[in-house]
Amino acid sequence: MRRFKKHLCLALLLLIIVMAAAGCAGKKEDKIRIGLLPIVESLPFYVASDKGYFQSEGISVDLINFDSAVERDSAMQAGEIDGTLGDVLAVAALNNSGTPVKMVSLGLGETGQEGRFAILSSPGSGITVPGQLKNVPVAVSANSIIEYVVDNLLAEQGLKPDEIKKEVIPKIPVRFNLLLENKIKAACLPDPLAALAEAKGARLVADDTASNLSQTVIYFRDDFLAKNPGAVTKFLKAYGKAAGDINGSPDAFRPLLVEKARVPREALEVFKVDRYPAPQPPDRKQVEKVVKWMMGKGLIKQEFRYEDLTRVDLLPPSK
Hints:
Layout: H1 2-25, E1 30-36, H2 43-50, H3 53-56, E2 59-65, H4 69-77, E3 83-87, H5 88-96, E4 101-106, E5 117-121, E6 138-140, H6 145-156, E7 166-168, H7 172-180, E8 186-190, H8 193-199, E9 203-207, E10 216-221, H9 222-227, H10 229-248, H11 254-260, H12 284-296, H13 306-309
Parallel strand pairs: 1-2, 1-3, 6-7
Antiparallel strand pairs: 3-10, 4-10, 5-8, 5-9
Helix pairs in contact: 2-10
């Protein structure tokens, strides 16, 4: 009987050890793969990673760099990344092509001062007001947020659709250089290059600080969201904490903008680091406006509803 009790105790002890080991195995960090472009909007992701905020939330986040939006979106379609930061046009285009994704938060663009896009004229063009761009080509990247901003800004200034002309120059640095060399008369650029171009002699013709056209958004693949809703909420909580750090001491993170976002050092002399809003839903009216523009250009086959492209239930509780 004593031997039986001894064996029973040993068996129970082994069972406890096995169950404890299984419990530890079940507490593995959730893994998230995020694709990022070298843009100022990506800064909170790098801050959250460097400060260990993702790890503190119990998630493992792999930040994967891409040089172009085409490469980033191809990775989303192939399932090589789970989420990313981009614009509403990219979200609608992915859904249109058969890759369901949904926005879970705004990135930049709570106000028009964040993530500014500007139409600028070359130093020698003599163009200073929007009306002078009637039938004058503005350099853009085709079927992009840049083209969307140009169409809407110039329409707001009274130009008719057939008076708005565009020249396709996809690469932003090339567009920047050609503008300053007076080889093109006008171009649309995002900050901080827009601010740097102004400092070097380009003329500001119009920007979207009043109409707030160029919002960026954080979005994930639908299949990832279905399996990992809690991990996404933790991710956004860590992101929000990093955004708060930047807002509290923006100059402290300028070196990271140079290293990760590849912002030219000279641009930081004339560019004020953006304020990064807390995680929040994308603006419904702006989303619907983008979708309508894409429908008008034949870029998508259906007029997606806000609910087709957005999930607002994964945001962390606001303080």
